[in-house]
Design a protein that fits this description.
By secondary structure, the protein is of the alpha+beta class. The chain has six helices and seven strands, in the order ααβαββαβαβββα. The chain folds into three domains: about 70 residues; about 80 residues, L1 transposable element, RRM domain (Alpha-Beta Plaits, 2-Layer Sandwich); about 50 residues, no CATH class. A four-stranded antiparallel beta sheet has the order 2-3-1-4. Strands 5-6-7 form a three-stranded antiparallel beta sheet. Strand 5 and strand 6 form a beta hairpin. This is FP protein C-terminal domain-containing protein.
């Protein structure tokens, strides 16, 4: 009996038994941890799916908000180059400008309102934002911008902040862009390598269409 007890004690102390014991404990721990982790991993996966869905919804909402804001500006243009005076009639200035510089026959009856935009800056004249009563008049003015070559004046669509940023990036940072422009508040870029035209909605469009050599 004593000999058997001694053999059992020796077996329990042996390296082989200790290794088997460690393996058994580790396996038991793995099973226990897995039972705890599995539902947590499922919850995390579900949350990640919800986050992805919410991000997609947010992008759609942001795009819709930008489109709605741009649509509200569809009758507007911005004109730069007018000397700013302390007391001035912007509508009269714009009408005279359209008639004389652009050769577009307009009167103050064609303009809903016109005013300087932004905070006053010393030694720098602010642009005038003009809202026409008719979209047709706005288009007529934009079409005559060619008359302003070699002058200090510029006429541009009144873009949202986001669309202004997209157009600026298209003109300044696109390494594979032949030209960039806006039409009815939408931004377009012609790719230099094949002259294909792309509508730009977000910064990722530049990279996806091979227009940039870096990511945003």
């Amino acid at each position: 009996m004593a000999a058997m007890k001694s053999e059992i004690e020796d077996a329990l102390k042996s390296e082989a038994f200790q290794q088997l014991l460690q393996l058994a404990i580790q396996e038991a721990l793995n099973v226990a941890v897995l039972k705890i982790i599995e539902p947590m991993m499922k919850t995390i996966a579900e949350l990640q799916e919800k986050i992805t869905s919410l991000e997609s919804q947010l992008v759609r909402v942001e795009n819709m908000a930008n489109d709605n804001e741009q649509y509200s500006r569809r009758h507007n243009v911005r004109i730069s180059g007018f000397e700013e005076e302390r007391i001035e009639d912007c509508i009269t200035k714009v009408v005279q400008f359209c008639n004389e510089k652009l050769k577009v026959d307009l009167s103050d009856q064609n303009i809903d309102r016109a005013h300087r935009v932004g905070k006053p800056k010393e030694n720098r004249s602010r642009a005038i934002i003009v809202r026409f009563k008719s979209h047709k008049d706005k288009i007529a003015v934009l079409r005559q911008r060619k008359e302003l070559k070699s002058t200090r004046f510029y006429v541009n669509e009144d873009l949202t902040s986001r669309n202004q940023q997209l157009l600026y990036c298209a003109r300044k940072d696109c390494k594979n862009a032949a030209s960039a422009w806006s039409r009815d508040g939408k931004i377009f870029v012609k790719r230099a390598s094949d002259e294909k035209i792309f509508k730009i909605v977000s910064m990722s469009d530049f990279l996806q269409n091979g227009l940039l050599n870096f990511a945003y």
